[in-house]
Amino acid sequence: MFVSYILARIKAYLRYRETVRELSRLTDRELNDLGISRWDIPFVAKKHAAV
């Protein structure tokens, strides 16, 4: 049970980092089209990883 919790946290962190990386590659215009600012990237990534 503890191991599955740790694995879930690791997977969530990896999803977070991947989302941050992908969103950071977008231009400001592309982010604006999505309704996201550069300052919102960590919050959007955290929300996505928690799913």
Describe what is shown at a glance:
The chain is mostly helical. The protein has helices at about 1-25, 30-35, 40-50.
Percent of residues in beta strands? under 5%
Mean pLDDT across every amino acid position: 95
Tally the helices: 3
Secondary-structure element pattern, one letter each? HHH
| Amount of helix | over 70%
The oligomeric status of these chains comes to single chain
Q: SS-based structural class? A: mainly alpha
Distance between the termini: 19 Å
- Based on CA inertia axes, which overall geometry fits? elongated
Please report the total strand number as a whole number: 0
* Largest sheet descriptor: none
Poorly predicted residue ranges = none
Textual characterization of the structure:
The chain is mainly α. It has one domain (7-49). It has helices at 2-25, 28-34, 41-49. Helix 1 (2-25) packs antiparallel against helix 3 (41-49). The model has no long low-confidence stretch (mean pLDDT 95).
Keywords:
51 residues, YjiS-like
Task: Present the secondary structure layout.
Elements: H1 2-25, H2 28-34, H3 41-49
Helix pairs in contact: 1-3
